[in-house]
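Q: Given only this backbone (389 positions), what sequence would you predict?
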């Protein structure tokens, strides 16, 4: 295995009733004034808002609200949150929601303290955080990004048309409360987007060197099988606790750095999706679903052994008289079939990306991953986009 350093500083409370049981105790650790951050009205409709605010009130906290965090959170929204945090002298942030809320909160936790332009300093390029961000706690309400257990935050700069993520360990939430029952009200379609994002995070890690026996790849295979199996169950019965809890923990396991240890990691599909998102604001999971099979058809010959393993160990395809190449292709086809089965789109057109959009401009703005089995060029990314249309 390759050398690595591992740390994950987020304390996780997982399971039925964890918010009621632990929030008040943890709220006590971070001061009196809390910035309560959330997205639209889902938490008001499903009762989570009421449950959380009554716990905070009983704990004697002063709550300052920061709402309306949109999907694909913008840098402008981050600045709005930082301004509210500074003006109200908040001591800590409590984010309730999915990846968009958690990511926005992480960026706010920096922007509220730093006097610098945090986009230029920390997102346009990797930066050094030599101060303590505002402490952040999160309550996860939809499984997908795994943002609850890392320092990653993906922010969109609308002016520059750039959507990019950075992972700063100092931005890891101090605690994460994860009650799978909180995800029951997530619309099935949104659950499918999030679950495909989980699968994508695992695949982007798995399909990279080293390929010799390593525990990360073995865990990844188990996780991929678990996502596929439990998503099928949860689509049929959204209130199946076992399925929802597995999906929720799969999301965390995919992005809490464990499976990335010693791996190069690819994430070229994420780079491509982020830029399509920056130009069109498309949904993250949908964009990934369109791109993955097409991208893998471009690279599988360069990582043939791993794609064979994927076919056999994840999709349980029997070799019979197939060559390595045919078997690897069968694995990618199984992935494409699964995408159709769970109702995700298979073309960029379905995401509203039409032929009059300048695909070359988007392709040229994509970062090129060094972890891919085949280093992409902007020309080949453009080819992939054209095949996806
Ligand atoms: O805004 P509300 O009304 O709360 O509705 C939300 C929103 O529409 C809804 N929702 C959440 N919990 C719900 C619920 N509806 C009913 N019941 C509940 N319990 O679901 C939607 C969730 O949206 P969002 O947070 O945008 O979804 P997701 O978690 O997929 O996050 C996507 C964002 O995260 C970034 C993506 O690029 C995108 O910007 N990513 C972050 C990563 C990270 N930090 O590590 C990695 C990922 O690869 C990804 O790039
Ligand atoms: Zn993702």
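A: Predicted residues:
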């Amino acid at each position: 295995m390759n050398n690595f350093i591992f740390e994950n500083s987020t304390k996780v409370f997982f399971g039925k009733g964890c918010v009621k049981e632990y929030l008040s105790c943890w709220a006590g650790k971070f001061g009196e004034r809390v910035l309560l951050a959330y997205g639209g009205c889902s938490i008001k409709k499903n009762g989570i808002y009421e449950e959380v605010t009554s716990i905070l009130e009983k704990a004697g906290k002063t709550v300052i609200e920061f709402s309306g965090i949109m999907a694909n959170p913008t840098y402008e929204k981050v600045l709005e949150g930082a301004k509210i945090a500074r003006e109200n002298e908040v001591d800590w942030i409590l984010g309730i929601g999915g990846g968009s809320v958690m990511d926005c909160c992480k960026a706010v936790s920096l922007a509220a303290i730093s006097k610098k332009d945090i986009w230029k300093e920390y997102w346009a390029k990797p930066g050094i955080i030599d101060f303590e961000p505002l402490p952040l706690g999160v309550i996860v309400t939809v499984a997908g990004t795994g943002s609850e257990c890392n320092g990653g935050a993906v922010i969109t700069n609308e002016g520059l048309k750039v959507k990019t993520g950075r992972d700063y360990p100092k931005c890891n939430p101090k605690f994460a409360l994860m009650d799978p029952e909180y995800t029951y009200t997530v619309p099935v379609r949104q659950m499918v987007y999030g679950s495909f994002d989980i699968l994508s995070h695992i695949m982007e890690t798995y399909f990279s060197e080293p390929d010799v026996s390593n525990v990360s790849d073995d865990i990844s295979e188990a996780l991929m099988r678990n996502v596929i199996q439990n998503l099928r169950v949860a689509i049929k019965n959204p209130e199946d606790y076992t399925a929802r809890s597995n999906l929720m923990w799969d999301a965390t396991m995919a992005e809490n750095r464990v499976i990335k240890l010693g791996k190069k990691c690819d994430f070229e599909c994420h780079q491509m999706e982020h830029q399509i998102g920056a130009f069109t604001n498309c949904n993250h999971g949908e964009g990934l679903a369109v791109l993955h099979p097409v991208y893998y058809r471009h690279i599988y010959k360069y990582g043939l052994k791993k794609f064979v393993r994927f076919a056999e160990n994840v999709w349980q395809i029997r070799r019979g008289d197939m060559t390595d190449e045919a078997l690897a292709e069968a694995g990618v086809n199984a992935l494409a079939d699964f995408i159709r089965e769970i109702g995700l789109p298979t073309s960029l057109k379905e995401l509203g990306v039409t032929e009059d959009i300048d695909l070359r401009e988007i392709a040229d703005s994509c970062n090129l991953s060094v972890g891919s089995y085949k280093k992409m060029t902007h020309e080949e990314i453009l080819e992939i986009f054209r095949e996806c249309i």
